[in-house]
Automatic annotation (TrEMBL):
One cellular component term from this protein's GO annotations in UniProt: cytoplasm
InterPro entries, per database record: AB_hydrolase_fold (IPR029058), FSH-like_dom (IPR005645), LovG (IPR050593)
Pfam families for this protein: FSH1
One GO MF term attached to the UniProt entry: hydrolase activity
Protein name stated in the entry: Ovarian cancer-associated protein 2
SUPFAM superfamilies, per the entry: alpha/beta-Hydrolases
Example GO biological process: response to retinoic acid
Length: 223
């Protein structure tokens, strides 16, 4: 991008999505911010196997990790000691920084937002090797996989000081809004929260543009 004011952001889609479906579903949101962001959307590395969560064995039905097996599946509500695919997803993200970065920020939707939160914890402890200035978490939640819970537990009373925008649907039937608010308020320092009356979506109405821009304009003031 030639516009120095345009921020380059790496986007992580949700479970059972891919880069193209997320591009379509986020089109309105991206249009609202087209002069402020360059969006780079990548695919999660794991296909969801044939089963209840992928009954047609679609090749573009993807996941960042699985929380259950036989066949592999994922549930945001699943308390589990099982995790598969997380390391490969982290490698994919690091490769994206190497090949397509640097990035000013990260944006995640649903499972993608949960992964962004984990990356923020790693960055907090200087265990993620790439720099970014902010994150946007849409319909985010704290992963209940035991190894991920342990990562949150490491924070103890500390708060992640990466500037964060949390977009929360008050009628989200997939990720309860209370979980998204808890992720924001319990683990992030001064989270910027935008609520909307919709569900498991990113609001695209132009009426939200001032709130989005308000967050971006305050980035330099964050301390």
């Amino acid at each position: 991008m030639s516009d120095k004011n345009c921020l380059k952001i790496l986007c992580l889609h949700g479970y059972r999505q891919n880069s193209q479906s997320f591009k379509a579903k986020s089109g309105g949101f991206r249009k609202v911010l087209k002069n402020r962001f360059e969006f780079v959307i990548i695919d999660a590395p794991h296909q969801i196997p044939l089963g209840e969560q992928n009954p047609n064995n679609e090749q573009d039905c993807l996941s960042w990790w699985f929380s259950g097996e036989n066949p592999d599946y994922f549930s945001s509500k699943h308390l589990s000691n099982y995790v598969k695919g997380y390391d490969e997803s982290m490698k994919k993200i690091c490769d994206s920084f190497e090949k397509m970065g640097p990035f000013d920020g990260l944006l995640g939707f649903s499972q993608g937002a949960s992964l962004v939160a984990l990356i923020c914890i790693l960055k907090h402890f200087n265990e993620f090797p790439y720099d970014f200035k902010f994150v946007i978490l849409c319909s985010g939640f704290k992963s209940l996989t035991s190894s991920h819970v342990a990562m949150f537990d490491r924070l103890a009373d500390q708060k992640i000081r990466i500037p964060s925008l949390h977009i929360i649907g008050e009628n989200d039937q997939v990720v309860d809004h209370d979980r998204s608010e808890s992720l924001a308020n319990d683990y992030f320092y001064c989270p910027f929260i935008i609520k909307h009356a919709g569900g498991h979506t990113i609001p695209s109405q132009t009426s939200f543009r001032p709130q989005y821009l308000n967050f971006l304009d305050k980035l330099n003031d964050f301390s």
